[in-house]
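Minutes, structural biology subgroup

Action item carried over from last meeting: produce the structure token record for Subtilisin-like protease (Brassica cretica). EB confirmed the sequence was re-checked against the source entry. Recorded below for completeness.
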Amino acid sequence: SVIMASPITITLIFLFLLYSAEAKRTYIVRVKHSDKPESFSTHHDWYTWQLQSISTDPQSQTESESPLLYTYKTSFNGFSAFLDTEEAESLLRSDSILDVFEDPVYTLDTTRTPEFLGLNSEFGVASGYSGHASNGVIIGVLDTGVWPESKSYDDYGMPEIPSKWKGECESGPDFDSKLCNKKLIGARSFSKGFQMSSGGGFSTKRESVSPRDVDGHGTHTSSTAAGSAVSNASFLGYAAGTARGMATGARVATYKVCWSSGCFGSDILAAMDRAILDGVDVLSLSLGGGSAPYYRDTIAIGSFSAMEKGVFVSCSAGNSGPTRSSVANVAPWVMTVGAGTLDRDFPAYANLGNGKRLVGVSLYSGEGMGTKPLELVYNKGNSSSSNLCLPGSLDPTTVRGKIVVCDRGVNARVEKGAVVRDAGGLGMIMANTAASGEELVADSHLLPAIAVGKKTGDLLREYIKSDSNPTALLVFKGTVLDVHPSPVVAAFSSRGPNTVTPEILKPDVIGPGVNILAGWSDAIGPTGLDKDSRRTQFNIMSGTSMSCPHISGLAGLLKAAHPEWSPSAIKSALMTTAYNLDNTNSPLRDAADNSLSNPHAHGSGHVDPQKALSPGLVYDISTEEYIRFLCSLDYTVDHIVAIVKRPSVNCSNKFSNPGQLNYPSFSVLFGGKRVVRYTREVTNVGAANSVYKVVVNGAPSVGISVKPSKLAFRSVGEKKRYTVTFVSKKGVSLTNKAEFGSITWSNPQHQVRSPVAFSWNRF
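Output recorded by EB:
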């Protein structure tokens, strides 16, 4: 029998095919830079002509309607354009076009810190470093923009803007260029990629084409990196004290690339392009996406150009932990930053009707619950998702006047509280599941609420299930300092191993990223919810988004103290001086399950800026060495040219193994071999006539030998090489397990430590 499609079905299929063929989207186009004909005075003119020649829409030939979005000058050889599939394919047929790919979308990886890191008034005294030196350092932040009225950008006492600065403060409908000053010296916005993705307009009333931050994230990250000291700062009474950035003397330049639907690669590349030309010393990017080959990773491509120009690039590792192999921004020329806790907490308790007291955390700041316990309810609603407290999942007749227990996961933590409140609930306990383990993140909920870990959550669920009249009373205890143990690796912090290049250990380090106080936007409440009418000058947030700008600011301090150091030398100093013991003198632990952490979670360890000022030895890496590294990957010459932006590359001198790169840490992939041998070169940045001896901390299944075992440096700047041989012991099963060790060059003044990760198979 023949089944005939209805006319409506045929029409829908036709419309779908028509839309599929004609729908336009943003593409990033890589061009053979040297192919520009002499008849065109600029690459921009050439790109415009190329787009006109393949246009399927003759009406879009005017400059204002041109499909060309950005012409890239330093970060990338090429342009981005708004094209349909046919036009993109037509471009790719040209010999001058090397690659065409869709615009990738990245997401944001969303006071006490300076003291915790040792950045007090005595910082750098022993090394002869003056904090005023950072006045010449410019930190560029790619994020959601800036709230310039924040006290964190007060420029009182700051000298004139460095003459090297070529940037500017852009005006917009809600942003006067005069709002910039000697602290906030630049503010720009890049929205063409975003606007094209959202049909040429803005998706919310709050958004506008200006550098103004209506999200809060960008103000938080930039003030963390280099905010001025603000006394009597707090978040609704929590974390009271002086709020200050890492490099209080440094200048801030903000580049708004993130909008309501994400951060688009075309906008990010344009901002990096501009920031390099503007003259920044450090670039901070608290955003990321999935892993991709470096030639398709816009952040990796833009960062390579920055590195080559002497700009240090710091990126967040991502918030996809504790899932294995979830780390993002893994290019070796980028500093990849995970997150740890501070020695500060915000305790809150749930006193149960059975006499037990459950310990949690909270930033709730409204009226308390009084002294009368309330009934507890869990998973009582009108849908299968009521345990998660998703919008519309709770039955008001069941939860009204009660404390609701919500499982963590799927929707935002603060949204769960709003759902409970809207359904008539008077309080909430958010309980972790296996995915978040024992990690506690404090939130400024709209109703009395606390967060508890998985074990406590399991006890709570069992109590509700087994007791005929379960009750609780929530109690909030404010701010507590000197918490032990700390730091602890945050459960959300993304983990290695590195899936793009397993021979490079990532993340590089961890920094403070849990419950961080910093500046905030006045356009939005602290939860980010539309129904949150509260306004506050500071907010407390968690994420690798928060740890990344800590390292960006510290890199600025090192740049000021050692202006001759390359980005890789600064990175090396931060990595080899990082610590691996917490404040109880025990190895770092993992908040996911309270087990011992390892370098796939914390990299080289937690940053120690005081020691990083004087690391003794550094592992330096030149641009040519990075090219030798790229040549050792399974990339075509065109792929490598896309990253390094040179007319051609010579791979005759490539590394035999990507792990031969002169990296400050080791990641050994045996892959069927029993022996792996790496050579490293260290540069003496300490005193003349320094002698170092090697200390090896091995792994159960691997033998490690280092030759020579002693390095003697006669002069400052002298370089010495050593070779490490790793031998997998007989009988080791080729499983997906990982083991860890370390190699440390030691003398009475310095411990130059490199972690080593071992794996037997690709992950």
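Discussion: The longest helix spans residues 544-561.
Next step: EB to file the record with the rest of the batch.
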